[in-house]
Write a structure and sequence with these properties.
The chain has 7 helices and 2 strands, in the order H-H-H-E-E-H-H-H-H. By secondary structure, the chain is mainly alpha-helical. A two-stranded antiparallel ribbon has the order 1-2.
């Protein structure tokens, strides 16, 4: 359900193909929600079947035709209903925390290596967020400010994680 509403929100920005949506997920949305190509296309099919989007064939010149998805009034209403609905806590799944919780089975060097792997991933994610932020123009509209704020949240989340990893390492013998 949430994936379909995120896709409706992206289609509210502009009509998009499945490839366009995947690009948006990979460059903006991925810091708070992930989806692979198959999930996006499967969800697009459901959105169209539900009448929340229509498909227009855009003829390609020297390229294959593109299937562009357009938000319908019913889709916009479903998006707005979801945006206004009560917030519900989503279960979080974090394999790294499960590994740390069960880390008694690791020796000190293995545990340090695990923490360093996570630090490297966090630093890479921080670099990605900073590159996206640096490429964004100064926000002018309310919507642009909100998108910038979610990116800023992602950056703060990474910094908190890095601080936690530092504290975790300090606790190790």
């Amino acid at each position: 359900m949430i994936l379909s509403r995120i896709i409706l929100g992206l289609l509210d920005l502009a009509p998009m193909t499945g490839a366009d949506l995947k690009r948006h997920f990979d460059t903006t949305v991925h810091h708070f929600w992930s989806a692979d190509k198959a999930q996006i296309y499967r969800t697009l099919g459901t959105i169209v079947d539900d009448g929340h989007a229509t498909v227009t064939v855009v003829p390609g010149t020297n390229t294959p035709d593109r299937l562009e998805h357009h938000l319908t009034p019913a889709g916009r209403e479903a998006l707005h209903d979801w945006l206004r609905s009560d917030l519900d806590r989503q279960p979080e799944r974090e394999a790294f925390l499960a590994r740390v919780f069960l880390a008694d089975a690791l020796d000190d060097d293995e545990l340090s290596a695990l923490i360093e792997q996570r630090r490297a991933l966090a630093l890479a994610r921080q670099g990605e967020f900073e590159a996206i932020r640096d490429a964004m123009p100064e926000p002018a509209t309310r919507a642009e400010h909100l998108r910038f704020a979610t990116l800023d949240h992602g950056l703060r989340h990474v910094q908190v994680e890095l601080d936690w990893l530092d504290a975790l390492e300090e606790q190790l013998p």
